Amino acid sequence: MSSTSIPSDSIILAPAEDRESKTPEMSFEDLYRVVVEMSTSLEQVTLQNNKLVQLNGELIKKVESLELSVKELKENCASKKTFAQVVTAGLKSSAAQVSFIKAAEIANDTEKRNAAVILDKVELPENVSDDGQFGQALLKACEVQEDSVSVFRLQKRVGPPLLKIQLQKKEDARKMMSQFNKIKSTVQGCSSAIIRPDLSKPERERQRAAWKEAVMKNNKAGEFLFTVRNLECVKVQYKEGEAHRAWEIRETRTSNTQLRVLSVYHPNHNLSYDSLLDCLKDLISVRGNCIIFGDFNAPHVDWANLKASDPKCRKLLSFSIKCGLKQHVMSPTRLNPDNVLDLCFTNTDIVNEITVGDLFSDHRFVHVSLSRQRKNSQKVSTVKCFRKGSFDEINCILSRIDWDFRFSTLTVEEMYQDLVALLSNLIDKFIPVKILKPSTKLHSSDIRKLQKKKLDVWRSEGNSVNYRALALLLRTRLSLEEKRITENRLCEGSSPHAFYKFVNSRWKSDEKIGILRDSAAGEDVTDDITKASLFSDTFSSVYTTDDGCASEFPVRTSQCLSSVDVSPHVVEFHLSHLPLKANTTPEGIPSIFLKRTCTSLALPLSIIYQRSLQYSIVPTVWKSAIVKPLYKKGSRCDPK
């Protein structure tokens, strides 16, 4: 809204008390000009008001249109169900309940397990009753003749459920596993699926152990001589005249980091990748981070666009996509011709940065930086180990300083602060740091074996009768071992000092100050600063309050002490008699440091003492101390 300014000389308003006595003089022209300006302002206000009314009408129409749209949207969404509602309804159906019962019955039958396959990463139908049709379509694509097939959904802790297909014959299950990778791209929902036999948990452990044995033997021989058949490590049967395939794969596990590192070498592009990929498929089936490094000799893969022009390279590319692996090396690692032969696969986003460096042989150096940091399960603390400090270097530095020149322009307070800063710097440089780790008990070999056996039983059987018996036996053994160690330490003590040292190591005193009771205010004190003030008032109440009046004493001598001389040798003598203790002081300089540097510190300290007595000035830090209250008797909440 615009406004029209009125000239200050148009109307003259007099104060209230002078209106009756003073009448403003105003001509007709001035009055006419004021009326014209007010009329113009009124027209502008009317135009703006009409515009606001028009905009308000448009806004009302838009709000009404939005309300209609929201109403239609609610009516359309009312009949639709969410994914959680669809899954819940499917699991509650009678077909799903029958499926769960049949799955439980078949789980313990070994013969039926051999005639079953497990599919992972399958896009399952929304309705559980459609799983049977899905299984029939899959069998038809694999050319397996089965009159009836049972399909079950197996829930996992994380991710979509597994699909179990129960067949009549184990030959049909083997045929399905051999044909699945060829036809899965033609079956809807199976483009990224993975098939495996139905193995129990102990069988999976046996399979992993067999593959580890095969890998170790193949690495030792440098050739592909062993593989896994029927959960056992067996020798590969080569035909007469067939060349042995050479490959290498190594596994490295890091402790406390949940990281598996695999080093792979495939020597020739013309050799088959089948055995190598089968072994990798089993080794990367872990929940933690997994990294695969190595020379795969797959030059015909465009990793940036995920394309391959060679059947064998296409098989490696398909393997990485199906297993959810990401390849990080994009620059050529082999020159003339330029090819990416050295690869790095990961199943998680653990790689922070990867760079291809200079040639170190016929390949380039590949540097990989990981973003995961090792977690330290134990909390550690550090202390200065003054007994192992380099005091020869410290004394050499202190002895070369011209203290008279250094302190020539400083006050007493500045001199002492400068000395403390210098000593603190020398302590940081020449005093080593000792890491204090929490004490860990080292048990006997029998206890460790029993602990491992208990863990294995828990993983295989859970909270079974055998597990509870082993847990009870382990607790008994640990109690007997602790009792034996305690008796040995008590009996081996040859002196009272050793006995009391052992008792103090077991005594856990509570050094923290609890809640105090302020009797004057009648309230409890929990704040540390308030506690310190309460202790200060309690301690000062014991002593006499200074009234500012000096006491009078009779004169005993006529001699006067004109000056006090603090010699360096006197300071050195007293410093050399300090105890060798790493005690805590306000400056952070313990007595063991002062004693080991008594000769070098004698001169600067004597200068500071002399100036302090001469000018009657004491450094501020000398007026502070570390006071620790010790409980003696009475109530712990009473500061007295």
UniProtKB/TrEMBL annotation:
- Entry-linked SUPFAM superfamilies: DNase I-like (SSF56219)
**GO molecular function terms here?**
catalytic activity
InterPro entries named in the record: Endo/exonu/phosph_ase_sf, Endo/exonuclease/phosphatase
Biological process, per Gene Ontology:
cell adhesion involved in heart morphogenesis; larval heart development
Residue span of region Disordered? 1-24
Gene Ontology cellular component list: extracellular matrix
Q: Name one Pfam family in it.
A: Exo_endo_phos_2
The record places domain Endonuclease/exonuclease/phosphatase at 260-366
Source domain of life is Eukaryota
**What is the protein name for this chain?**
Endo/exonuclease/phosphatase domain-containing protein
